[in-house]
From TrEMBL:
Full protein name: Serine/threonine-protein kinase PBL13
GO molecular function, one term: kinase activity
Transmembrane segments: 405-430
Top-level division of the source organism's lineage: Eukaryota
Basic and acidic residues bias (residue ranges): 486-495
Region (Disordered) residue spans: 486-511
Species assigned in the record: Frankliniella fusca
Keywords assigned: Kinase, Membrane, Transferase, Transmembrane, Transmembrane helix
Amino acid sequence: MQNFHSSLEQLKSAQSSLHNSLNRTILTFRNFSVDVQKSFDVIRHEMTEYKYTQHQTTQVTRNNVYMSKLNTILLQIVSNELAIRTALSDCRRGVLSLEVVPVERLTEKIDQLMSLAPYRGFQLAVENVEQLYLEKLTTCQLTDEKLKVWLKIPLKTVNTEWKIISFWPIPFAWEETLCRLFQGTEPVLAATNKDVVVPLTGPELKHCKENNVCQVPRIEGSYTTVGQCLRDFYSGRTAAELAKSCPFHCKHSSTPEILQLAADQFIVASAGSHAISVRCGKFVTRQNSLGFGSFRFTVPGNCTLSIDNNVAVNKRVTMPRSASTVHGVEFVLPAVWTTRLNVELDSIRDFPNAPKFVNDDKILNSSWPLHTTTFLEPDSLPAVNIKEVKTRVMKAYRYFPGEEIVLLAVIGGLTILAILNTFGLLILYLKIKWACNSIPRGPVSKITKIVEVVDDDPAEESERHDPAPTSINFATGSVRRSIRGRVDQRDHRPESIPLRQMADTPPVGIL
């Protein structure tokens, strides 16, 4: 029994030791587990930080890509807005913008247009496509979604040519009236092609003045008063026919009128009594108006022209090399032509040799009836007797170099001789050289001093006072202001015609 109790005590002691050892092992394991957990936590934390860093890097890279795309879109928006502003600015000026329509695209569209049936047989009226960007041919419309652009493409019939002629109405004084072939003081522009003469009026005239491309009107020129007159001038008619189609327009006026023909050339028409003078420094040339005809003054750049002591033409600021250095005054009187109304004038389009007349004093009429339209009463029509006018020499006189073609027309019994130059039609007149103190006062019938010889050849300068020849010479030449284009008379399709840049010299014209 004692052994049993002793063994039991040993067993309890061993059990207690085992329990203590097990507790220590469990505690150690728990501590180890805690350490392992801590290690895992550290590892997990480090892995989380790595993933977070990697995520942040990816996110930053992705944001950079988004910002780059956003900047690109903003740049495109700014560029498009700038292009639209540029296009709108060009549209306001009426020109086509390269920002909107590149040259290649415009060329492609024009080629497609010209391949269509209605436009076969036509071609561009300008030399190249690039010129379309310089002309005022564009209209635009801006909406919320798009910019619409319309371009007028100027076309002409293949192998056709037009000419532009400028008619300037020179004033002519008679008693209390001032007369012109056309009403108004502005030049009359007309497009000519063979027998077709079409005055440019209204929208066509405005467009032609603002551009180097002119549009031929659809209206046939012969169905307008001005067009009929210009066609007769251009095609060639008898003096009697021209008298019917080209009436004189007169108005009551005693106010002097000045027309500038060139830089130093001026026409002064005065129906009333006025004192006209040209002052060049201390030297003054005085001239009283006669109440009829006109005066042609050469006023150099350092001189002034005054009417009744009031300066009408000032000095020039700049002096071109071709400017006149000597002032002069000439009396301009239209030739009277009534005895040979059946004479037929050659067409100016063919530029043939013009007729020549001998003993020109025999072609002058004894009376000068002035037929008007609405401005004068029939009972007040003036007349003048010029039987005593003994013309010794009258030759075709050229205002400036290059003016060569001569025309002639009777306007209501009054014959007008005109010159067509590179800018228009000019008066051809009886050139009367008057001394400042020898101009006759009184009626025309007392005029005895008459024309000096005027020749275009400088070599004949010594013959200018030779009274022997008695003839009228008509020079010939060409028109340099030429344009291309054509009006199709079958369907009245309007066309455009290119016009070169206008010359700087002011155009001159016709009485």
